[in-house]
Amino acid sequence: MTSIPPEQDTRFRGKHIVITGAGGNFGREGCIYFGKRGAKITALDVNKIALDETKAIVKKEIPAVQIITFVCNVTDPDSVLAAVKGADTEFGTIDMLWNNAGYQGQIAPTLEYSLTDFANVMNINVTGMFTVLQTVAKNMAAAKKSDDGHKFTIVNTASVAALRGTPAMVAYASSKAAILAMTVSTAKDLAPHGIRVNAISPALIGPGFMWDRQNQLHASSGSPYFATDPDAVAKGKINGVPMKRLGSIEEVVKSVAYLLSDDSSYTTGFNLVVDGGMSAGIR
């Protein structure tokens, strides 16, 4: 069965979506995907240059798109609140949130891992994600009171690292595991407000700079779990995937879209793993 052309996909037409980490590869692809389907997009990122690039690329590809951007630091509650208020003023109530901003942090064995970096990863990936989730959920819940039939959805970006405990990435893996717990807890708390909350857990997505860079960092980490040659690291990872290939950013975004749409209307508190079967059976 062929995919529905974007112009015929009405799931997101006229909906208002907030995407954090919009200056990165995943967030940028998300802006393009939802923009092509008629969504109104509020794009957030702490990196103004990357955010401006995203807006320019989206506008070039979709001239009629409705998109606004806010430079936003997810670790600063005032910054998040200002962005959410600005989004509401421009496009009205937020229908969907892709809570996607994150920080990989240092790649080093546990005995060498920086406590400062560990705290920074947790602050961005956990506290920052919760700050965005809570602020947006308050906007959604307030709108729910005046429109009891309205539906709202949130997707948090987690990672297969939370399920497998990736070596030399203790902070990142720990933060993503916290996101999975956050997703389940908030899904229960927010269900009475008509808000569904789910998570997406990608792994081995590429090719591209991030894929190559992570293999280089793993190779140089000194961990006995990785070869010292980046190409050998990459080959070993792909050999561990039952589907024997990398996933694409588009495949991740399509999975996010499923969780944000009414296609998953009876699903909340769920973690959708996008990893070619690498962590099959681990949940």
From TrEMBL:
It comes from Chaetoceros tenuissimus. PROSITE patterns: ADH_SHORT. Belongs to the short-chain dehydrogenases/reductases (SDR) family. InterPro entries: NAD(P)-bd_dom_sf, Sc_DH/Rdtase_CS, SDR_fam. It comes from the Eukaryota. One of its GO terms (molecular function) is oxidoreductase activity. This is Uncharacterized protein. CDD domains: SDR_c. SUPFAM superfamilies: NAD(P)-binding Rossmann-fold domains (SSF51735). Keywords: Oxidoreductase.
